[in-house]
Design brief:
Blueprint (H helix, E strand, L loop, with lengths): L3 E4 L9 E4 L9 H14 L1 E4 L6 H8 L25 E4 L13 H6 L18 E8 L7 E5 H7 L2 H7 L3 E4 L1 H7 L7 H6 L3 E4 L1 E3 L6 E3 L5 E4 L4 H15 L5 E4 L6 E5 L3 E5 L9 E6 L13
Parallel strand pairs: 2-3
Antiparallel strand pairs: 1-2, 3-13, 4-15, 5-13, 5-15, 6-12, 6-14, 7-8, 7-11, 9-10
Length: 296
């Protein structure tokens, strides 16, 4: 039986949908996987309520969408991790399962997730999809917001669109964490954060729809001065995250959400660090540079 896909966002009929009628803990048929790809092409964000998954089942389901990135974009050394390398640890827990102190550098680094961003845009070949599972959530707060970068692009005036077309940006976690005043990086981390080139406007490899490609990781536009770059990028980000383009997801335990980084930005919302938030994300590796997806 194919999944039931229902629009979830009262602001838009083609941005964010709820998916029911399938168990993600079970192997999926090729027809189901294709239906999910098609739903992602339309809605960009899919919410699967009440999916109780082990880490291994989460990883197995994720592999239907492509190869997985390893969790190398966070602040932790491998021997400090509590989860396997296929899972990004989106929590305030340390390797023993205890809650991090408020001043723990790993926690402070993770606050960058509260800036509008696209996952792994700091990699030369950025991520396609992200798949996040909620294990423990705070009693209040801790929502996640998603912005439709396709709609944001269509809503730009023609003059601004023309100004964006053909532009190449530089992305690095040095930019996003620097915005927060976080500069505590080991030498090996700084070497891994060399800025990479990304298109400012990209065309989706499946749908061929154009969208803005923005992120807190974007620090400059090639050929522009740094101040001019950042003013223009901030202006675009303010446009793209207007309420009309944004959906806010209030998590329930065992929600699983898939989003398309090629068509969205997202950000975590704040929560009381005295409460535990345990969420685990797989990330589907990209296959082409965004520079190969620039509209003609």
């Amino acid at each position: 039986m194919l999944p039931e896909v229902t629009p979830l966002n009262p602001k838009s009929t083609n941005f964010v949908a709820k998916v029911e009628g399938i168990s993600l803990s079970e192997p999926q048929t090729s027809e189901t996987v294709e239906a999910l790809f098609n739903a992602l092409d339309t809605f960009a964000v899919l919410v699967f309520p009440n999916q109780v998954l082990t880490d291994e089942q989460h990883i197995r389901f994720s592999r239907y969408f492509g190869d997985l990135e390893l969790a190398t974009g966070d602040y932790m050394k491998q021997d400090d991790r509590r989860l396997q390398m296929e899972l990004n640890d989106i929590s305030n827990l340390d390797r023993t399962g205890g809650k991090m102190e408020a001043a723990d550098p790993k926690r402070l680094f993770s606050l960058g997730n509260m800036l509008w961003h696209s996952d792994s845009s700091f990699k030369a070949i950025p991520a396609q999809y992200s798949i996040l599972s909620a294990k423990i959530i705070p009693a209040t707060e801790g929502d996640t917001e998603f912005a439709d970068m396709r709609a944001a692009w269509r809503a730009l005036d023609e003059k601004t669109q023309q100004k964006c077309l053909g532009q190449v940006t530089r992305h690095s976690q040095l930019y996003s964490r620097g915005e927060l005043g976080f500069t505590e990086f080991r030498e090996d981390q700084q070497e891994a954060m060399v800025p990479v080139r990304q298109a400012l406007v990209r065309r989706h490899p499946r749908t061929k729809n154009s969208s803005l490609y923005l992120s807190a990781h974007a620090g400059l536009i090639e050929g522009w001065t740094v101040p001019e770059s950042r003013i223009f990028l901030k202006r675009l980000a303010e446009h793209a995250t207007q309420r009309e383009f944004v959906y806010r997801h209030k998590w329930s335990v065992n929600d699983l959400v898939i989003w398309d980084n090629q068509a969205t930005m997202h950000r975590a919302m704040g929560y009381d660090n005295k409460e535990v938030r345990d969420m685990r994300r797989t990330t589907i590796a990209g296959v082409t540079s965004s520079l190969e997806e620039m509209p003609a």
